Protein 1
Amino acid sequence: MPNVLLTDKCTRACPYCFAREKLTDGAEHFMSLDNIIYLADFFARSRHKRFSLLGGEPTLHPDFPLIVKYLLLRRFQVRAFTNGSMAPDKCANLTELFRAANRGAVKNFLFVVNINEPSVGDAAEAVRLDDFLAAYGEFCMPGFNIYRRDFSMTFLLDVIERRRLAKSIRVGLAQPIVGRRNAHLDPRDYEEIGRRLTEFARAADEQDVRIDLDCGFPLCAFSDEQLGALHRRRAQLKFVCNVIIDIGPNMDLWPCFPLSAFTAPDIFQFRSLPEITAHFQKRIADELAGEPAVIYEKCGRCRQYKRGQCHGGCTAFAIARARRRA
């Protein structure tokens, strides 16, 4: 599932930020409309119908509403990953778009809103976020990134109820950026994360809210009993780590943010998304030099790993370990 970065500028500085390596503190860069059209054609040739818009903060792009309208008219499913800081003038433009658009097309659009715990950020940021959710709640799914053991997500249940958001929470696990520093958990903490997530899922289910795990979780973070409890509460569980493909504002490429050191000059060298995926899979395999791309050494003996039920956590841990050994 490729991600398209509309800009390399953000209005936040989250301690766990997985995109930090690709952000700028200076003049921002925006993807051109010509390149948006090129990517739409490229995705269509690859039979890929989803556009994930990222940044930085994608709504900073001066033509964000126009880009969304174009992609919906091309019948793409569009997800915009935002922190909810969109400027009021753009909010008005997007509202006009939604009012004018065919209702069926708008159903193909979703904001995934990254919501930090209330203790992270300032009061002005919280007000902007709440105003955004008040305007677009019906088009929003909350997202939450775990980067410390003592996290709490219970506040999200009130936000979902009050602002009528989608009753699903995308839960990410902060991963290390190869060659850089960012806040993330040690894999030895994952069993505690599994326990806390299972407890939260019970509370969320009381409000008919489910959790949806993003990539990088290992299956063994959860006991069999916890997996059963999560399944009973409709949690969307996946224990994968695949080449995603991120496309920068200047059309440069890398396999995912934790592996942003593995760059390719630009997308114009490739004919399809599968060709890009194969390119990065080979680069990663060469880097690992035969070592399995797993976070625990015990993964090699794991039956679920051998069956492909679990990919062994985030590959960034395996690469960091291989580089230390070298």
Note: The two ends are 32 Å apart (CA to CA).
Protein 2
Amino acid sequence: MNHSTNSPSLLAAQFENDGYLIVRSLFSPEEVQDIETRFKEIHNDGKGTPGFYEPALCKEAIDRPDDPLNKYPRVPQPHRFDKLSKHYLLHPKVRQVLVEILGEEPLAVQSMFYFKPPGARGQELHQDQFYLSVEPGTCIAAWTAIDYCDAENGAMMVVPKTNHYDVVCPEQADPSKSFTKHYVRPPVGTKPVLVEMEPGDTLFFNGSVIHGSGPNRSQSRFRRSFICHYATSNAERISDHYLPCLTFEGKEISIETNEAGGVCGEPYGGHAH
């Protein structure tokens, strides 16, 4: 595992200071190929493990018949029906990093796969904790690149040091640029930075960190990613979309559903990157 530092304390300090951390080559080329091959199969199987594989990414895509996301929709919560996805959601190397940066055992709450084909819109800046509503504490994302990610094919962008920023009610996103409707404006004096990643690199970030991605302007390159979310073991409540939680031993844990009104006066559940 190629960390930017060999010291767990420095690793945790970097995550606390910046709100995010890139672990280079967390997964080997063989493991990346393993994930890529499996999701090609899921996509080609066609159309539906009922309740999990979505024929359209979101309502906005339905009104856009030529939207490439209609052909390559996301795969939400694949660990609930696919053994390989569950294996990587609960991978020991992911646990190792999470324990180092959190100082306690994590709970797994979500997996997703995104194809982001050429021509796909991006997703405006947002905060994950707005959707997951973990209490106490927040969620943590582990975003693994399956393809090389750069500005052309819509790499991730993060706003450093927004990990202690309040979760806010989003503004309306521009639908010509974003396939989801929410936009969180960065605080004054901050701006997003592009995160270029190689296949197998994993970006860990705090649930309050403002992040998003631009459109895939490439003519031929996908920007595929395997994305997982976690909470700390002391979590007592979470949005019901993310239940049941899993320990890294694979045991299901039921915690309370967070039915609080949220920062907009109502709970939100859907989530994407």
Note: The two ends are 25 Å apart (CA to CA).
Protein 3
Amino acid sequence: MTRERVQPLDQVRLEAAAQWWVRLQGAESPVDDVSAWFDWLETERENREAYLRIQELSLRLQATAQVKARRSSLRWDRRVGALAASMLIMTVGAAVLWRMHIAMQRPSLTLSTPIAALEQAPLPDGSIVSLGGATSLKAIYTEALRDIRLEEGEAFFEVHHERSQRPFVVNAGPVAIQALGTAFNVRKTGQRVTVTVTEGGVQMSRVGAVRGTVAVATGEQATYDPRSDRFQVVAVDTDRALAWRERRLEFVDEPLDAVIANVNRYSPRHIEVRDVNLHSHFYTGTFHPDKLEEWLIAIERAFPIDIHSSGERVIIESHR
């Protein structure tokens, strides 16, 4: 197995501190950035010490940059600040920049499908991915990781077992899914992510979270709900969950807004929701792309909504 060289902890900490320093030099640093910086400082005492060392070094570098600017008839402005930042990164974060350079050289594969189209393609490691309608993903392979990024839509993965045992990880918005010798389906609808396992198992976790890993076994389905920031795992009929591969969508007790979003990936006419909250309404049923009108009539009867057409669009509004 090829392993990446691990840097000493102090160097890693200093690089992180240098990145925070550069990140916070903007004229208007986002509130989220500042809050995350405070959290990082409070995590460990050594983080604060590393940042103070970087801060001290930055002051020295700024002084040096100012001298260089004066010698070259430059005013002390943002150009000099940028020079100081560059010097700091070169001094402390050379390894970070090198890793960024390596990352840019990584081989990648981008796949996408139009509305209502189904496709299947091999991945660089021999794994097979089936893509649903209006789906896009990117595969980035390194010596240490098989990194799949599902940007939107739905995909079924049949993971090839490698001797090198590189982790196979699907990143879908706020969720990371690591395969454990497996076949599984991932559906991303906005920030809502649903994973169904047909063989083996997976581990799901919230990206950036320290805790909260969820194990999902064969015949189970796990859904991450961004509103509650929680995972829910249930036993399911996997054939129903993968019915999209036979050009029909099966839903079981799902929020109607998520249902509409997934229907739009196959619908011959775009459905637009206006001035109505559909998340609190739950739908169970089947959608056939060639029976859109019948399906619309059925949901209009079942929910407090009005549906009418406007050109090539279908408009859903609150019932008046």
Note: The chain has a mean pLDDT of 80.
Protein 4
Amino acid sequence: MAQLKPLRCGPYTLAFDRTLIMGILNLTPDSFSDGGLYFDTKSAVSHAKKMVQDGADIIDIGGESSRPGSTPLTEQEELKRVLPVLSKLRKEISVPISIDTYKPNIAARCLDEGAAIINDITGLTNPDMVKVAAERNVPVVMMHMKGSPQTMQINPEYKEIVEEIKTFFEKQIAIACNAGIESIIIDPGIGFGKTLEHNLLILRHLDVFTELCCPILVGPSRKNFIGVITGLPVTDRVEGTIAAISIAVVNGANIVRVHDIKACQRAIQVADAIRGIQ
């Protein structure tokens, strides 16, 4: 695989000489893992600063839960949740902020307020989101999801899941490149329209996606498949998350999206050393 170019994110540049950490900041009352914990601006900003202190390279802000069966928000409510935090946080941390949204208007407003990356769970399938990303010249996380958060876990089926996801990325990367988007990150979407076995296959064969020559982001943090394997509740899945991200790093992940920054950062240091990039 060719050496990945550094990622320009507004005033920041992220190099891929090690695995990067994206810290999760859910500004929601109903996210599957930490809903309601950081629902006010003060606690959200404090938590984000702690994640940066612990080693996060990117802070990913989301105002709408994408857990299975979640209810979509109005744009007005989503902006009400994210803009106050984003406006304050951009002045208090020195790492890029990504906005986790599939709504082009939300993405545009948040870019105006200082976000530097778009994290789109619908994989740039909305032409208006393609337009926003191209016009603003920002990196985009392009995630694969089968269905929508409301339907994705209702008996998801694939013939060859890894190849199907790769084909999806090939198509969407071509669309993005044709629109002039220069920086594309791909995320196979652990837990988004996938069964336990699907998630394991993705992690096992993550190296297939390196052929696309884009940075790979993986987000298994605290997810249900870890609970199925271990029998543990969402609040007790740190070790399972560490195992998943370590395998992902060795198999080609460049960015991991996690809740537990300090523990995961220590594991990544070892995984990177084994991988020979530290």
Note: Strands lie at 7-9, 12-14, 20-26, 58-62, 97-100, 117-120, 140-143, 184-187, 217-218, 255-258.
